[in-house]
TrEMBL record:
Entry EC no(s): 3.4.19.12
GO-annotated molecular function: cysteine-type deubiquitinase activity; K48-linked deubiquitinase activity
Enzyme class: hydrolase
Keywords: Hydrolase, Protease, Thiol protease, Ubl conjugation pathway
Origin superkingdom: Eukaryota
Deubiquitinating enzyme MINDY-3/4 conserved domain location: 6-103
Organism taxonomic ancestry: Eukaryota, Metazoa, Chordata, Craniata, Vertebrata
Pfam families per record: MINDY-3_4_CD (PF13898)
Annotated catalysed reactions: Thiol-dependent hydrolysis of ester, thioester, amide, peptide and isopeptide bonds formed by the C-terminal Gly of ubiquitin (a 76-residue protein attached to proteins as an intracellular targeting signal)
Described purpose of this protein according to its UniProt entry: Hydrolase that can remove 'Lys-48'-linked conjugated ubiquitin from proteins.
Protein name as catalogued: Ubiquitin carboxyl-terminal hydrolase MINDY
Family per record: Belongs to the MINDY deubiquitinase family. FAM188 subfamily.
Region of interest (Disordered), residue spans: 63-85
One GO-annotated biological process of the protein: proteolysis
Length: 108
């Protein structure tokens, strides 16, 4: 028997399988689950438990950013345009969102 609290989480939590590794993407704002207005700019955290990740990554998600604010001088196929798999997973829910890693080096 699964308890109701496990069927309906109080905080947003996603279990992820990215490039063959498992991790958890989570938020600490319960209103993100019930109030669409909270989806403008919000924070998520990602942890995968791998040796190369020494601390939980703190990500800021902006769903109202504009694609033309990105550096247009770069070729889209250049290595500098490559996006981490965590960002691509986030964009499956919030298409076009920008992700700030807040000083953490993005990992792929």
């Amino acid at each position: 028997q699964v308890r109701p609290g496990l069927r309906t989480p109080r905080l947003p939590v996603w279990l992820c399988s990215l490039t063959g590794r498992h991790g958890v993407l989570f938020g600490t704002d319960s209103l993100l689950l019930s109030d669409w207005r909270k989806e403008r700019v919000f924070h998520l955290y990602f942890y995968n438990g791998q040796q190369e990740q020494t601390k939980t990554a703190h990500l800021t998600i902006d769903t109202h950013s504009h694609h033309w604010e990105e550096d247009q001088s770069e070729d889209p196929s250049s290595p500098g345009k490559r996006r981490p798999s965590v960002e691509m997973a986030i964009r499956t829910k919030w298409a076009g969102a920008t992700v700030s890693w807040n000083g953490t080096d993005p990992f792929f």
